[in-house]
Amino acid sequence: MANPREQTKKVSEETEEVVEETVEAVPEEVEQPSAEVETQSVKPLEEVLGQAERAYAAFMEAQRQVANAYRANEQQIAKAYKRAEQQAKNAYDEAIKETMAARDENVAAALKARDDAISQAERAFKKAKDQTDKQCEERVEAAKSRREEALSGAWQLREETMDQAWNIYAKLSR
User: Fold this and answer.
1) Phi then psi for 3, rounded to 5 degrees?
2) I need a labelling partner for 152 at 20 to 30 A (CA). Which of 6, 58, 95, 136 fits?
3) From CA 127, how far away is CA 134, in angstroms rounded?
4) Neighbours of 12 (CB within 10 A)
């Protein structure tokens, strides 16, 4: 699209050239015309002045049209900028909305994974504790059983030793 100011400048230069050509066409030194010649020369001068006035009016109209076109172009550019600005804002808002939704989903998934991991760890702890408690009870029972056996064996040995001692005493005291 051509720059409106350049167009105005071109129209202005063209109008000035037309006015200058018209003015140059009129001879500078005019002889003293007779009354009839004077009447005839006034008509071409009026025609030239009329042409100049029409050219100036055309120039002013062209300048108004260029200014109007410039303003209309400026308004269109402003509207296009506003549309682009609104589209950018909408895209930004949508991206933020999608990002926040994705973040919420990721946080929810992480919380679920954390809860699952805690639950699994608690189950593993309970299983290990139960197994350890069971092994502890088994070992306590085994130790108790061995103690009972040892005490029983010691009692029996005591009984046998006492019997032998009484038997020896009984043989000696006879």
Assistant:
1) -70, 130
2) 136
3) 10
4) 14
